[in-house]
Design a protein that fits this description.
This protein has 77 residues and is of the alpha+beta class. The protein is built from one helix and three strands.
């Protein structure tokens, strides 16, 4: 768990995500703040990792998201 600055009131509605998306990180209230789609190598951050209000763990999530997006997806057997 970490503190990260949110500058928008937008969020996910409901508990189901579109096919292929996974919740990576939740905030202290259980709301998703980072989502990933393995097939698209895409990560959606719903917080500001660059904010002065965000703790270092927020930047770790950003680094992980960049590495994930740059990597090649695993091949299916």
């Amino acid at each position: 768990m970490f503190t990260a600055a949110r500058y928008a009131s937008l969020g996910l509605q409901g508990s189901e995500l579109p096919a292929g998306w996974q919740i990576w990180v939740r905030d202290d209230q259980g709301r998703p703040v980072a989502l990933a789609h393995a097939g698209r190598r895409t990560v959606c951050l719903l917080f500001r990792p660059d904010s002065l209000l965000s703790e270092p763990q927020a930047r770790q999530v950003l680094r992980a998201a960049l590495a994930f997006a740059a990597s090649k997806p695993a091949r299916s057997p």
